Amino acid sequence: MTLRIDDRVLAHLQVVVIDKLRRLESFTFTWDDGANESVCWIGPSIPLEFVFSGNRRPVLNREWLELMAMSANSNSGLIVMPEPAPVTRIDAPGRTQDAPELPRPARPGRTRPPREPVSA
To answer: Assuming Cys at both sites, which of 57, 75, 94, 96 could form a disulfide with 88, CB separation 3.0 to 4.6 Å?
Structure first.
């Protein structure tokens, strides 16, 4: 079966689905194409392929991922829902687009500079 999904939606679904399958969890996936509502069973032994039509990976919306993950963990299963307004966007591991990169605070208790390495 082939399901055509917008790249932005697909990128978010891929993260949630792979996270569930990585933990060997099965779940239902429900989508509405406008004419029909369809439900399918997804499990670790079922092969899946995520094919994107564009050449750039969409920026991920953390809040949308969390909402979809919560639905995937519920009795109703994973449901594609409208994207909420992003509070934080995931650009790269450990960084968000909204938050500027801040200098790291000094470690507590460190009052002197680190020792120079001793050469033998």
So the answer is: 96
Domain hosting residue 92, numbered range = 7-96
25: alpha, beta or left? (left if phi > 0; alpha if psi -120 to 50) = beta
Judge whether 51 lies within some domain.
Answer: yes
In this prediction the pTM is: 0.68
Residue 47 domain flag: yes
The length of the chain is 120
In the numeric block, the tokens 């909420």 are attached to: 84
* Separation of alpha carbons 84 and 18, rounded Å: 21
Positive or negative, the CA dihedral 63, 5, 38, 22 is negative
What are 76-112's pLDDT values in tens digits?
Answer: 999 988 999 866 555 555 554 444 444 444 445 545 5
